[in-house]
């Protein structure tokens, strides 16, 4: 698994590729999961297997392994 660091006050875009059962989840459910992980101002777009999430990290800098569903993460302005 890849390791990634999120920095306080920065906004991120994540490209998600969901599994067979996960793709049945609505974007609101995915947004709730990201909020539960600590992200704020979460928006999720797309349908089926491919989704794009944009969110703000309001907490202290943190480093963790990326879940397999996250294929790419970029910091945005």
Explain what you see.
- There is one protein chain.
- The protein has about 80 residues and is mostly beta strands.
- It has one domain (about 5-75).
- The protein has one helix spanning about 25-35, and strands at about 5, 10-15, 40-45, 50-55, 60-65, 70-75.
- A hairpin with a 2-residue loop joins strand 3 and strand 4 (about 50-55).
- The protein is globular.
- The chain starts with a strand and ends with a strand.
Topology:
Layout: E1 3-6, E2 10-17, H1 27-36, E3 40-47, E4 50-57, E5 62-65, E6 70-76
Antiparallel strand pairs: 1-5, 2-4, 2-6, 3-4
Number of strands: 6
Sum up the overall morphology in one term.
globular
DSSP helical segment count:
1
Low-confidence segments: none
